[in-house]
Amino acid sequence: MAEIVLQRVMKTYGSLYAVNDVSFTVNDGEFVALVGPSGCGKTTTLNLIAGLLPMTGGDIAIGDRVVNDLDPKDRDIAMVFQNYALYPNKSVFNNLAFPLQMRKLPKDQIDTKVRDAAKLLDITHLLERKPRELSGGQQQRVALGRALVRDPAVFLMDEPLSNLDAKLRVQMRSEIKRFHHNLNATIVYVTHDQLEAVTMADKMAVMNGGLLLQYDTPANVFAHPVNTFVASFVGSPAMSLIPLEGTTSATGAALRSPEGWELPLSPMNARKVAGSTSNQIILGARHSTLKLHKAPVPGSVPGKVYTVEPTGDVTFAQVFINGAVVNISVEPTIIIHPDEQVFIEFDQDRMHLFDAATTMALQAA
Ligand SMILES: Nc1ncnc2c1ncn2[C@@H]1O[C@H](COP(=O)(O)OP(=O)(O)OP(=O)(O)O)[C@@H](O)[C@H]1O
Ligand SMILES: [Mg+2]
């Protein structure tokens, strides 16, 4: 296995920056998810690592080699695509064996490698079947197996689970995680599903518009999103974002709503607001950090219930605060109704503050 280093990687199509000055390092044995909305540059980044596209600029190293000018076949990578691309007329055994036959490995070695991979992926009983005789999840495991037998330095995977139904996707998610754990493989995994990235990866690279916005562990991205885009992209239901006005007075700092209320800020949050370039502040809060009250409590602000969605374990409510929709989760025993006036209490230690002008998270000075 090997590390992957991207330095200032660029890919342009005419005036379009598909990948714009992207740098990150995937450590040896790490599972990194490239995540972001459709068209943000995930596949392009992966294809640049694979060598399937020429770069406009920058450097890519795999292991101790700069691979900029190497053909895909010389980069020691294995790719797993969304559409598996299995050979329909070959048995599962021969699908796995094919890349090794091409390399002219001795027959007994091929046999051993194929059977080892089949065992790891629990497809030994399927080796004689044709791909069309397999379920989607089984086909997916064969595609993984075909990458695995090649024993590459790195695995590159582009939305490998997106053709599967929701239940199978969750199951395959654990299996790919297990695959990573067993092999200690270096994996770059493309997905547009933030939940897949958060649950599977050691680190996630959040992209938008060709730019790499944040590269960190899922826990850090969740706890400290760098801007409003990352804040609302990662986490479900999404972090609520409420545009307000920052004010400071002799008694301290607060966020003020044109609806006539003020939310006083803790000293730490006051320092953040003091460092903002504008007084337009966006208050961010995740559903689990908010408390819903039927009567005002100190530090709560008024809101109006829009929808109530019981899910059994937990009830989700959407509440309008200052014109913004705010997601809140409450105990299922709490009865609330649409259009009811409620009061929402914020957790000062877990709220997020963003500069509305730059969308960047505010840091305490
Ligand atoms: N051959 C091409 N010519 C011109 N533009 C391209 C080409 N390939 C990709 N693009 C553009 O580059 C941008 C990034 O595309 P890319 O396929 O990397 O997105 P993605 O993040 O993988 O999206 P998705 O989640 O939809 O797969 C998009 O705006 C796309 O339209
Ligand atoms: Mg793509």
Describe this structure in words.
With 365 residues, this protein is of the alpha+beta class. It folds into two domains: 4-232, P-loop containing nucleotide triphosphate hydrolases (Rossmann fold, 3-Layer(aba) Sandwich); 237-355, Nucleic acid-binding proteins (OB fold (Dihydrolipoamide Acetyltransferase, E2P)), CATH 2.40.50. Helices cover 25% and strands 33% of the residues. The chain has nine helices and 20 strands. The strands form four sheets. Strands 6-7-8-3-9-10 form a six-stranded mixed beta sheet, sandwiched between helices. Strands 13-12-11-14-20 form a five-stranded antiparallel beta sheet. A five-stranded antiparallel beta sheet has the order 15-19-16-17-18, with no helix packed on it. Helix 2 (92-102) crosses helix 3 and helix 2 packs parallel to helix 4. The longest helix has 18 residues, at 166-183. It is elongated and about 80 Å long. The structure holds adenosine-5'-triphosphate (ATP) and magnesium ion. Adenosine-5'-triphosphate binds at residues 13, 16, 18, 36, 38-44, 192. Magnesium ion (MG) binds at residues 42-43.
Number of strands: 20
Tell me the number of structural domains: 2
Number of helices: 9
- The named CATH superfamily of the largest domain: P-loop containing nucleotide triphosphate hydrolases
| SSE pattern, N- to C-terminal | EEEHEEEHHHEHEHEEHHEEEHEEEEEEE
The global form is elongated
Structural class: alpha+beta
Helix content: 25-40%
CATH architecture of the largest domain: 3-Layer(aba) Sandwich
Please mark out the parts with pLDDT under 50 across 5 or more consecutive residues, or reply none.
none
Largest sheet: 6 strands, mixed
Terminal CA distance reads: 42 Å
CATH topology type of the largest domain: Rossmann fold
What is the percentage of strand-forming residues? 25-35%
**Rg (C-alpha, Å):** 25 Å
Distinct ligand kinds: adenosine-5'-triphosphate, magnesium ion
- The overall pLDDT, averaged over residues, is 93
CATH C-level of the largest domain: Alpha Beta
Strand order of the largest sheet: 6-7-8-3-9-10
